């Protein structure tokens, strides 16, 4: 189902035994958002991944009735979906453009905590770097002008035989992403603020790329992929250039929040070829396994020219709700051997056992090692709920086993026969 390209939706789900009713109120916005998709599917587990920008088919018949009315300057879409399920999930897609969907019934603010783990795996050295900051204001103050909780996470996967590029970007990340990026200021978050914030994030990636070109300590043959996740209040903004990946767990369902930029991805292949590049044996220009990265200036055109290899990130925005449990941010060493669903299931089970995101990140890395990944490994697990208070339950008295003598067994047998 394709929604109108000029609407910001507010969704409320009402579930019945056989019919689920989905009410949307929409407001026209000044900037059209292209290719909005609303995918409706059941939440009964088997867990499925709904990658952004694609449609999900359903095995059962679904009838959709759309009624539009105009009143008080607002339009209303009333969608009735006939299905066997008693619950449904709505995920929104827009080919990695800005999407903001705010449930009208909730004022959820996430309680953020995280943990991370990294391992060189079977490589000689670890070229990965990462950042996890649960409270940005404690480090930088209220840099956006509004006193909302904020957090920042990033994974940088270096390549070219050195972690010089990844290490440089990590060391200068706070300056590049927050001090030099002309962050928007506002007393409250609105559509214009989010649009400006996305623009400043894109600029930060390009600033980091340019800084690598000017840094003498970083060889031109070195580069790094980069994925960042910024949380501001209830807003999650994910920016990606490369093949690291962010996956959100929404009520047990894996929702992919980024696209892997590899030569095998058809849209990237088309972009590369349009700019004069080529794909050979699965590699960009026969040399690089990704189509977007910071650095690698030996493969790029001079500053200001569009190159087949670009540092321009794709950015995705989403509004967090009570259904959002955690976010996994990890390098390709994890995703090469694990599906989104497997990773989400592993972390979810871990949180139910010990409620420790740091231990979950370690378990995720260890599982990828067990599955014989060939790359470095880095994982960050970001939880959106407060720690669970576990009350100590009194232990049952331990029973001591003892054996009966032959005489006692015979007496017991005779008593049982007598009854």
Automatic annotation (TrEMBL):
Record domain PPM-type phosphatase: where: 113-384
GO cellular component: cytoplasm; nucleus
Keyword Hydrolase: yes
InterPro entries in the cross-refs: PP2C, PP2C_BS, PPM-type-like_dom_sf, PPM-type_phosphatase-like_dom
Name of the protein this chain belongs to: protein-serine/threonine phosphatase
Family recorded in the similarity comment: Belongs to the PP2C family.
Domain of life, per lineage: Eukaryota
EC main group: hydrolase
Pfam families linked to this entry: PP2C (PF00481)
Keywords: Hydrolase, Magnesium, Manganese, Metal-binding, Protein phosphatase
Cofactor: Mg(2+); Mn(2+)
EC code: 3.1.3.16
Catalytic reaction annotation: O-phospho-L-seryl-[protein] + H2O = L-seryl-[protein] + phosphate; O-phospho-L-threonyl-[protein] + H2O = L-threonyl-[protein] + phosphate
């Amino acid at each position: 189902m394709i929604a109108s390209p000029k609407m910001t939706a507010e969704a409320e789900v009402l579930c019945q035994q056989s019919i689920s009713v989905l009410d949307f109120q929409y407001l026209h916005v000044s900037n059209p958002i292209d290719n909005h998709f609303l995918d409706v599917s059941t939440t009964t587990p088997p867990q499925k991944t709904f990658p952004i920008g694609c449609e999900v088919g359903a095995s059962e018949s679904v009838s959709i009735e759309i009624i539009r009315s105009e009143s008080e300057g607002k339009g209303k879409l009333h969608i009735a979906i006939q299905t066997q399920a008693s619950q449904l999930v709505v995920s929104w897609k827009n080919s990695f453009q800005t999407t903001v969907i705010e449930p009208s019934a909730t004022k959820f603010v996430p309680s953020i905590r995280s943990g991370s783990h990294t391992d060189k795996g079977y490589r000689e050295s670890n070229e990965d770097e990462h950042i996890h900051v649960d409270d940005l204001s404690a480090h930088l103050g209220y840099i956006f002008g509004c006193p909302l909780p904020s957090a920042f996470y990033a994974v940088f996967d270096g390549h070219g035989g050195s972690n010089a590029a990844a290490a440089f970007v990590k060391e200068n990340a706070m300056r590049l992403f927050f001090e030099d990026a002309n962050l928007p200021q506002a007393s409250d978050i609105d559509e214009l603020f989010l649009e400006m914030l996305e623009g400043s994030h894109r600029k930060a990636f390009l600033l980091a790329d340019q800084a690598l070109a000017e840094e003498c300590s970083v060889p031109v043959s070195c580069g790094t992929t980069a994925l960042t996740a910024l949380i501001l209040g209830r807003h999650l903004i994910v920016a990606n250039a490369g093949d690291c990946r962010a996956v959100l767990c929404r009520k047990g369902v894996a929702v992919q929040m980024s696209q892997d930029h590899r030569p095998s991805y058809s849209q990237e292949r088309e972009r590369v070829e349009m700019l004069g590049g080529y794909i050979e044996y699965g590699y960009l220009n026969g040399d690089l396994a990704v189509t977007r990265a910071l650095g690698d200036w030996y493969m790029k055109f001079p500053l200001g020219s569009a190159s087949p290899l670009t540092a321009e990130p794709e950015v995705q925005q989403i509004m967090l709700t009570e259904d959002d449990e955690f976010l996994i941010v990890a390098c390709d060493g994890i995703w090469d051997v694990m599906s989104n669903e497997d990773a989400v299931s592993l972390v979810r089970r871990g949180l139910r056992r010990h409620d420790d995101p740091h231990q979950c990140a370690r378990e995720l890395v260890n599982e990828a090692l067990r599955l014989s990944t060939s790359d470095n490994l880095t994982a960050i697990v970001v939880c959106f709920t407060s720690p669970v208070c576990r009350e100590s339950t009194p232990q049952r008295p331990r029973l001591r086993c003892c054996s009966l003598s032959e005489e006692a067994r015979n007496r017991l047998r005779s008593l049982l026969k007598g009854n």
